[in-house]
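[audit] Reproducing an earlier prediction to check determinism. Same input, same settings, fresh worker. If the tokens differ from the archived copy the diff job will pick it up downstream; this log only records the rerun itself.
[audit] input (339 residues):
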Amino acid sequence: MIPLGPLGLGEILGGAFATIGRHWKQLLGFALAVYGVALVVFGGALALAYLSMKEELHRLLDWSGESAPGSDQIMPLVATFAGVYVFGIVALLVANAVVYASCPAVLQDAVLGRPSGIGVIWGRVRPRVGAVLGTVVITALIAAVPLVLMTLAFIGMVVTMIALAVDGSGEWGWLILVGFLGMLATGPVAIWLWVRFSFAPAVAVFEGQGTIGAMARSAQLVRGAWWRVFGISLLAFVMAAAASYLIQLVFQLLSLIPTGPASLEDEAASGGVAVTIVLTTMVFGLLTTLVGQILTSAFPQLVVALLYVDQRIRKENLAPSLAEAAGLPPQQPPAAYGA
């Protein structure tokens, strides 16, 4: 699948595409199952929250100017659905960790030419999910700082515009300045750390390291090749995002076929047509979300895992060990071998 020697950009991207081409059932099926379970769990939590707060929610939606709800009625709703939102984030992080762990496992079988199956992948991934989840959570926390500050700047801009339109006051403008300057200060550091620790999931799977050990090992392997790892990783994310967008666009067009020109605003539309439109939109929206999440998770992680292999070949002469593991005869030059 790849030459067992230092890899160029074309060989890394080609190896990722070859892995998807040969093992797409394992990769996509595994990711679809994982994200599907996470979606069902989140949907169940949302349904339980709605059932527990059904009366309060309906009362809030039906309030009039004479009977405006107080904070004692609003805060339980806010706390409940905020808890569901946090639970959804946790479920997504766990699902991402499982998928991130599966990509190096599939890649290892592809490089060594070994048969692979969903059950085999799960058996190898299950013991490493905790370590990979730790690396995913820490990396997410690093990235969250500039994102929160950027959100703060956006909120400050919106609030300031509303205040200026209502009473000409710009007292919330400081939020824009704080958020913008904070994002400029923390953004480059977050990107640097994200690249420095990007090999951690692959290390946790390939080498069996724990969370801290995997992150330290990743930093060691990235040292001296930060810009190369950053550039190729960024290219992989852009390619995956572009492919995800195109596929989502196709799904959105397909969602129009069952309903034709009808819409919820048509006065002649029957209740059945309205239900069909809503269900079709929801189903296709769910499919596009799942496909987009799978693409933006699996392909970049395959590229990063190949970068990890490349760095070990360059720094630690891993090629002979890979050739031996793949069953390559010693007399054959490893560089000429494709697993």
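[audit] rerun output stored. Observation attached for the diff report: The chain has eleven helices and no strands.
[audit] end
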